[in-house]
Amino acid sequence: MDTIVVAGASAAGLSAARQLRKSGFAGSIQLVDEEPHGPYRRPEVSKGLLNGQVDTNSIAVRWPDELGLEQVFGTRLTALDLQSRELHITSDSGAAVLGFDGLVIATGARARQTPFDTELRGVYTLRTLSDAMAMREDLDHAASVAIVGGGFIGLEVAAVARAMGKSVTVLETSDRPLGRVLGPVFADHIAGIHRERGVELLCEVAVTGLLAGPGNAVAGVALTDGTAVEADVVLVAVGSAPAVDWLASSGLDLTDGVLCDATLAVEGAQDVVAAGDIASWWNPLYGRRMRVEHWTNATEQGAYAARRLLGLHDMNGFVSAPYFWSDQHGMRLQSIGTTIGHDRADIVECAGERLVVAYSREGRLTCVAGINSGTAVQSYRKMVLEGETRDAMRNISDATADIAR
């Protein structure tokens, strides 16, 4: 290969570019991304950027000159032609074509857009640095914030806004925030932490629309039961979707991201790999297809995908017990493995706001999650990777109960 294009300056794309050089690739690497300001630490979007604790300079990812990357930023990907091995792009300078011998698809995911009136000022989705900087100014002057969606982004922003002294209401359609991901025991624990710090959590509610105030500014959120929640700022945090629009004419399977085999090679393409939020791959550890939207997974997948492109990969495939963290109210929530499909959840530790829960399926450990638990979660990494039996875990409380999926 003479030319490799990395589509997306995400955590996965950056990791792939680094690994290509580390593995000895001496050809041209073109790093293409839609955002104009270059790579940055994306987890700060819902944390330090909103309250001003960090700025754009401090979260920028610096690139050593010796990597020799051609950075093509502020450029939108429009199509992929696998037969001619070309990427179609467009920018302020017009349309262009990039040829490639190898391709890393790492365009990540986009926030699901608000289904409500987008003409009102003070209504946001949150995924990029630009989103955070725009919301930050309004958040500084707001007295009240309504967050539609009680997922990780919604809860992180709720914690940030509450620490800033704002009145915060989280609106969640299910019976508890994060219940689908972490199960009822852990989800109720998280909900209690937020409520104790003054966040109002309204569950099993649905939004019908937004209320307009003077000057076309948002004034609140209308609910299906006829009530309303006042708000100067509204964040719509209703999930994300893989950024695959530019691949629509490629012929690739885009059912849930980009379909890959266990080695992250894209099905139906030659010398094309995918990594990060966009990659749907067969995880040998769990014997199932997965798509994971977490920073650590993206970084590890990017490095593996680069080695796969060069034929230097582990032939067993990308085996992963995904790790993620979420900072809320000065505490870190951590998880290693996957809770999907678990048939039992056991409390390992519970003391005050500290909680560690082990998830298993058919007696095999699949995940351990904890909050305010220090290094406890990481200590179980080997057991999760090896699929130990639940009974092999030490210090599991005898007072446990089966918890339905």
Outline the structure in words:
The chain has 405 residues and is α/β, with parallel strands linked by helices. It has helices spanning 11-22, 48-51, 56-59, 129-141, 152-163, 179-196, 295-310, 381-385; strands spanning 3-7, 28-33, 69-73, 76-81, 86-91, 94-99, 102-105, 109-111, 123-124, 144-148, 167-172, 200-203, 207-212, 218-223, 228-230, 233-236, 240-242, 258-259, 272-274, 279-283, 288-290, 323-328, 331-337, 344-351, 354-361, 364-371. It has a 5-stranded parallel β-sheet, with helices on one face. Strands 9-16-10-11-12 form a 5-stranded parallel β-sheet, covered by helices on one side. Helix 1 runs parallel beside helix 7 (295-310). It is globular. 43% of the residues are buried. Residues 3-302 form the FAD/NAD(P)-binding domain. Residues 323-401 form the Reductase C-terminal domain.
Q: Which tags fit this structure?
A:
single chain; 405 residues; alpha/beta; FAD/NAD(P)-binding domain; Enolase-like, domain 1; 3 domains; five-stranded parallel beta sheet; 8 helices; 26 strands; disordered C terminus; FAD; oxidoreductase; flavoprotein
Summarize this entry quickly.
By secondary structure, the chain is α/β, with parallel strands linked by helices. It has three domains: 3-110 and 240-310, FAD/NAD(P)-binding domain, CATH 3.50.50; 113-236, FAD/NAD(P)-binding domain (3-Layer(bba) Sandwich), CATH 3.50.50; 330-392, Enolase-like, domain 1 (2-Layer Sandwich), CATH 3.30.390.30. It contains eight helices and 26 strands.
